[in-house]
Amino acid sequence: MGEDSDELQSVTPGLISTVKMELDIQCEEMSPSRWAELLSTMKSCKTIRLDDCNLSSSNCEDLSSIIKMNPSLTELKLNNNELGDAGIEYLCKGLLMPSCSLQKLWLQNCNLTSASCETLRSVLSAQPSLTELHVGDNKLGTAGVKVLCQGMMNPNCKLQKLQLEYCELTADIVEALNAALQSKPTLKELSLSNNTLGDTAVKQLCRGLVEASCNLELLHLENCGITSESCREISAVLSNKSSLIDLSVGDNKVGDSGLALLCQGLMHPNCKIQKLWLWDCDLTSASCRDLSRLISTKETLTEISLIDNNLRDSGMEMLCQALKDPKSKLQELWIRECGLTTACCKAVSSALSMNKHLKVLHMGENKLGDAGVELMCEGLLHPNCNIQSLWLGNCDLTAACCATLATVMATKQCLTELDLSYNSLEDDGIRKICEALRNPSCNMQQLILYDIFWSSEVDDELRALEESKPEVKIIS
Length: 476
Hints:
Mean pLDDT: 94
Low-confidence stretches: 1-19
Number of helices: 16
Oligomer: single chain
């Protein structure tokens, strides 16, 4: 290596990005010698990611020293390690140093309790560089997060993203959160999913969000005990905060009546929603009229998840009509496990042939059958169709539809990802798929084939294909 080279000589090839100076390791047991080897590398890294590496509080003492001596470190990711409160105390000694310029800190599922929150509050109060804090999957509790909120209220705190999923929060947290929101115009993302908040607390939170000066862009409230009762207030946030582009209220009993209320906010001219997740919200085909109006008229909307709602074929046909509208700009539609059958596939095909924007279509766990997929392939083969990722896992498919699917694979160069898992394709079907993969026109990058039974001969064919086309990843 020449003297003028600014590359980092890595002790472990492939783990260090020489341009961005990143250390990115996952799921590796750390022996003392391996840890010592990595520590010397960390002194120069801008990013350190060590998820699932069986780290403990003793490793945090070393990491604290790295933070102190490496002012260029801006991201530290330590998810799924048993760091405990003692580990966080060590880490924070480094984080509180004036030389520290860390921006992103990930501590998800690190066995933290409310005791860590006092230490983290000090960091929030003292480090204006810290813009992201991810502490989900820890038993912080309402008392602990109230302490974090005190840190957020310090004028030095410039936090933009706060992730508090699975933190054992209750309705009592909302008053402290609202006070923090009022004082924190920098906050852009708030995730409170999988906490037992309930309607009263969510309504109170939403009223606070409407009044707050922050330009919130992301609000995740999945599995928070929401019913239709909260939806008017959530709707008010949508109509008042044009900054809000990502809303997830999945896994809540919103129901058709709640969805109608949400759509009032979603359809408001101020609303600029881009990503809307409504999975498992007790919706039926009755909601599809409102959803269709939204898809056909809200040009900012690019991604919607309706997974695990009983929309049925009649609901899907309404959604397909919306996809045919020239104003629809939807790029991703997640409609897995929605009670669909072959009967809706002609409408899907028609929508695919007219919609140039749709890139990702998840239709797994619906009884589409071979006949349904054959119909869909007519739309997929249309020049207007630009699908890149197609998910058809567990759709009652057999080898009978594989010749047509193979034609789509070999013809549509835009198609780079295909999931056919949990279908009885057997040797005959997989061989047809292999034939398409060998075609020079096929641009497939990822083929997902979980839980499909084939012979050892076909297995050899698949392995040989992977060797001859290393750009294709076959996951099974």
